[in-house]
Structures are given as C-alpha cells and as structure tokens.
C-alpha cells in the first residue's frame, strides 16, 4: 500500500521543483532564526539567491559537535514555548543531543512514519507491538504516532522486559513487531526456549531498525519469525525513524522521503559530493522542519543512493542498507573493516549462534581484535554441555578463523564462549567493546 501516492510516485522533475523551493525556504528560515546558521552561511559567502540543488556543495555542513556545542536548545529556530516535544539521542559520549519538534514537525513525522509503515506492508486495522524504547529515544514515540495515524492498533510495550513481550505476543497475536533486529532475535530465541514457536505468533512483518544489521541477520530473523523483516532508518537529528524504509514488494533499498529530507553522498574524508551509486557518507538537509532545521547534516552513516524508480511504483530515491558508521570502521593490521562485514561473514558459519562481540584492544601501538562467538545451542545439546577443551571447539574456532581470513583477510583471535555469555540486547546492541 502506498500511503501518499501523489508524493511517493511523483515524477522526479516535480519532486526536484518541490525540493528547490523547500531548500530555499529552509536556508532562509535557518539564517533568520539561528545565529549559528547566520554565521556559518555568512562565512561560506552564501546569499539566499545562491541557494540551489545544483549548488548544494556551497552550503556549510552541520556536525554532531555543533548540536553538542549549542546544547540544549541553541540551534532551535523557534522560541522554546513553540516547541511541542523534545527528544534526545542516547549520548554515549557525554551529553545527549537534544532535538525539538513544533506541532507541525510532529505532523510531518506522523506522515513519514505512516508512509514507512504502509511501505513495510502494514494495513489499517492491524495490530502492532512497539518494543522500541519510549521516552527521549525517538524509536518508541516515533513509531507510536505514525502507527496511530495510519489506523493501526498500537500496543505500546516499550523496550526490555522480554517475558512480558512474549506474553503479549502470544495473547494478542499482533501482525507487526517493531524493535531493533537484535532485540527481535532475543525475543524469538527466548520464546523458543519456553517451548513456543515464534512462527506460530503469525507475524506478517518485522519493523526493524535503529542499528546496523545485515542480509545474513535478515535471513536469520525471517527464518525465526516466519515473516519478512523490513529495514527502517532514521536519526534523531533529522527527525527520528521515518527518514527511509524498505518497501514490502521489492525490499531492494530504503525509500527516502525526499520531499522532507534531501540526501547527498559525500566522501567521508574530503567531504566532496559523490555521484549516484557511489558509496560514502550520507548527508541530509531537512526541507520542512521548523524547530530544528538542519543544513547538510553529516550523519556518519555509510551507504549509497539509487535514483532509478523501484518496481513497487515509488519514484523516491533508494538508499542502500547502512554498512556502518564512518567512526565505527576498524583498522586492524592494515585491514579496514566494518562490524557489519564481520557479522555477514560470521553468520555464514553454520554451527555458530547468531551472536557475536568484537573486542578491540587499543592499548598497544597497533589495535588488535578478538572475536567472541557462541556455538549453536543444538550443537551444545549434542555434546551434552559446553566444555572449553572439547576438540570440536578447537575445530569450530579454526573454521571461524578460516572464514574471516577468506572473507575479509583478517586474522583475529577467536574465542568460542559458552552459550548465553555474550550479552543479549533489548535495544541497540553493543557489538564492539573497546579497551584503551
Ligand atoms: O535510532 C531512530 C530510529 C528508531 C530508526 C527506530 C529506526 C527505528 P538515533 O538514536 O538518533 O535514532 O540513532 C541514529 O542509528 O545515525 C544510524 O547510525 C543508526 N541507525 C538507525 N537506523 C538504522 C538502520 C534512531 N536501519 C543512528 N540501519 C543512525 C543501520 C541505523 N543503522
């Protein structure tokens, strides 16, 4: 189902015209109301009359640091009294990044989330269990508002409390489950341990996002739940979830809501714009946001853009699955690798459980990597328990090492650890642990 056919299937020329007008309005709005943008645009020598889609590269970038430097409300373009809601990103390093929405921004958010849910296969009248965190995180309330707006019945469980999630899934039988892919894996596995069958819940779609995941993880989740697993992308600084989503028909790239968010791909080091199809860092400009307009926001997320129309009928540009974050790339003995590439390789090793953790030790001159994985539970049952000295464990470890060498040219230390020793995630999974 296409929620907003007029916009989502618009000819690209019409979309470009709409974007041009909105880009000019956004730059003028930000310049007039946010001292930071007033100064940045002046320093870049940009006049309102220069603003054009073909001259985007002349506009200054906005960085996460800029939001932090103006903590909490310094980049807001409206008086605090006109802000209807505030969210914040988790802020693992220091203070959180605070974002604000006017009533109209919330209306736009509901609209783009309704489009996203419809694209993923949801239909009015169905039931959806929302197991993203409610609160300052944009996941819970972002899905909630969009789902109510499109006519779904919402079960607002929030994240965590796996046993309660399972109880409600079994008793309510929702068509949709919305949570991070790592939490979906944990819920499904826990349900199985209770003797249940996740497939018997009858989910029609999994609405998964908020963290990097791979096609290999998708295959695991689809086998576990017996339904399509759909990728949702977004970030607080730009709006939250609802920036881009796969369609149920093709699941070949995430449709980006280009009438509200203008995407570019730049070289992560030089910042130079990249041609369509080339991989690089995603940069987004908000086109309609009132409370917190962002101009050329450096997301840090690595992807590429495909402008060709999709077979689902939507004409909006498609973004490839996020490969990782520019600042998450590991450089181990001269090999550059994203955690998602390790995930994709590890999940090809048949006798492993789909859980892993990457331990990076930066205390020596050159960082070293240790990969922690668990054997599949089936195997441990056959062995009659987990005993680290078993020859099968050494053999499994050798297979993992071969796989990582063959796929990625890496020779990390491999540790096969006992089942359930790798922490399970109820929100965004922590895949990389650094020692400094
Ligand atoms: O994670 C918004 C969201 C909530 C998206 C629920 C999807 C579903 P933040 O907490 O600000 O917002 O984190 C944003 O998470 O820059 C990416 O690095 C990562 N991320 C989000 N979605 C995906 C995805 C929400 N589908 C940051 N694939 C982003 C890979 C993702 N990474």
Brief write-up:
By secondary structure, this protein is an alpha/beta fold. It contains 12 helices and 21 strands.
Question: Can you offer a commentary on this structure?
Answer:
This protein is α/β, with parallel strands linked by helices and 436 residues long. Helix content is 32%, strand content 23%. It has a nine-stranded mixed beta sheet with strand order 4-3-5-6-7-8-9-14-13, with helices on both faces. A four-stranded antiparallel beta sheet has the order 10-11-12-15. It starts with a helix and ends with a strand. The structure holds 5'-O-[hydroxy(phenylacetyl)phosphoryl]adenosine.
- Kindly state the mean pLDDT as a whole number? 97
Distance between the termini: 49 Å
Query: Rg to the nearest angstrom?
Result: 22 Å
Amount of helix = 25-40%
Task: List the ions, cofactors and other small molecules found in this model.
Answer: 5'-O-[hydroxy(phenylacetyl)phosphoryl]adenosine
Strand content: 15-25%
How many E strands? 21
Poorly predicted regions: none
Task: Identify the overall geometry.
Answer: globular
Class inferred from helices and paired strands? alpha/beta
Q: Total helix count?
A: 12
- Order of strands side by side in the largest beta sheet? 4-3-5-6-7-8-9-14-13
Main sheet summary: 9 strands, mixed
Summarize the topology.
Elements: H1 5-8, H2 12-33, H3 35-43, H4 64-69, E1 85-89, E2 97-101, H5 103-119, E3 127-130, H6 138-149, E4 153-155, H7 162-172, E5 176-179, H8 181-193, E6 205-209, H9 215-225, E7 229-235, E8 240-246, E9 254-256, E10 261-266, E11 280-286, E12 297-303, E13 305-306, E14 318-319, E15 324-325, E16 330-332, E17 335-337, H10 339-346, E18 352-361, E19 368-375, H11 377-383, H12 391-408, E20 413-416, E21 432-435
Parallel strand pairs: 3-4, 3-5, 5-6, 6-7, 18-21, 19-20
Antiparallel strand pairs: 1-2, 7-8, 8-9, 9-14, 10-11, 11-12, 12-15, 13-14, 16-17, 18-19
Helix pairs in contact: 2-3, 5-6, 7-8, 8-9, 10-12
Bound molecules: 5'-O-[hydroxy(phenylacetyl)phosphoryl]adenosine (DLL).
5'-O-[hydroxy(phenylacetyl)phosphoryl]adenosine (DLL) binds at residues 89-90, 132, 137-139, 209-212, 231-236, 240-241, 299, 301, 322, 325.
């Amino acid at each position: 189902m296409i929620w907003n056919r007029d916009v989502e299937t618009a000819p690209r020329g019409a979309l470009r015209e709409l974007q041009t007008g909105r880009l000019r309005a956004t730059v003028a709005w930000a310049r007039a109301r946010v001292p930071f943008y007033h100064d940045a645009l002046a320093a870049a020598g940009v006049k309102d009359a220069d603003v054009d889609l073909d001259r985007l590269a002349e506009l200054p970038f906005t960085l996460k640091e800029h939001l932090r430097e103006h903590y909490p409300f310094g980049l807001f373009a409206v008086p605090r009294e006109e802000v209807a809601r505030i969210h914040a990103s988790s802020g693992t390093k220091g203070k959180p990044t605070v974002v604000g929405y006017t009533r109209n921004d919330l209306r736009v958010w509901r609209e783009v989330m309704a489009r996203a849910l419809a694209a993923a296969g949801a239909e009015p009248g169905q039931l959806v269990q929302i197991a993203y965190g409610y609160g300052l995180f944009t996941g819970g309330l972002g899905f909630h508002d969009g789902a109510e707006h499109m006519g779904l019945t919402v079960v607002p469980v929030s994240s965590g409390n796996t046993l309660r999630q399972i109880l409600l899934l079994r008793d309510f039988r929702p068509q949709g489950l919305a949570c991070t892919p790592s939490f979906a894996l944990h819920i499904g596995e826990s349900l199985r341990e209770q003797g249940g069958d996740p497939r018997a819940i009858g989910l029609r779609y999994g609405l998964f996002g908020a963290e990097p995941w791979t096609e290999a993880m998708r295959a695991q989740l689809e086998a576990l739940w017996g339904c399509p697993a759909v990728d949702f992308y977004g970030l607080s600084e730009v709006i939250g979830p609802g920036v881009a989503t796969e369609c149920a028909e093709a699941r070949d790239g995430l449709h980006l809501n280009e009438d509200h968010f203008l995407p570019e791909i730049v070289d992560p080091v030089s910042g130079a714009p990249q041609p369509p199809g080339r991989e690089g860092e995603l940069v987004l400009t908000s086109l309609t946001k009132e409370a917190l307009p962002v101009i050329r926001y450096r997301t840090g997320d690595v992807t590429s853009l495909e402008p060709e129309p999709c077979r689902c009928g939507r004409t909006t540009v498609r973004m490839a699955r996020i490969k990782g974050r520019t600042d998450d790339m590991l450089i181990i003995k001269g090999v550059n690798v994203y955690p998602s590439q390790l995930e994709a390789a590890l999940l090809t090793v048949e006798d492993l459980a789909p859980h892993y953790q990457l331990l990076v030790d930066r205390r020596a001159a050159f960082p070293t990597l240790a990969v922690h994985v668990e054997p599949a539970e089936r195997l441990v049952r056959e062995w009659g328990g987990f005993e680290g000295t078993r020859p099968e464990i050494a053999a499994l470890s050798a297979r993992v090492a071969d796989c990582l060498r063959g796929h990625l040219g890496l020779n990390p230390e491999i540790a096969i650890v006992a089942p359930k020793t790798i922490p399970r995630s109820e929100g965004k999974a922590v895949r990389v642990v650094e020692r400094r």
